[in-house]
Amino acid sequence: MRLEGGCYCGEVRYVAEGDPMMQAQCHCRECQYISGGAPNTFIAMPAAGFSYTRGQPKQFHAQGSRTRVAREFCANVARIW
Description:
single chain
């Protein structure tokens, strides 16, 4: 399977290739925060098949959480408005 995607403004693009290792929804507090309250739906792909094809995302680490969850995002929020 090959998945391609990226951010809304197009500055960050990625490709993920391989057989999905897991498809799930996460209901943890961190995923509820990032999704606005709903569960976070995701597909886990092999790390060896993942690469950024344009740009590099910024990282955010939530402070005070029980687990150290890193979120990656496009920092160019001004371009979507």
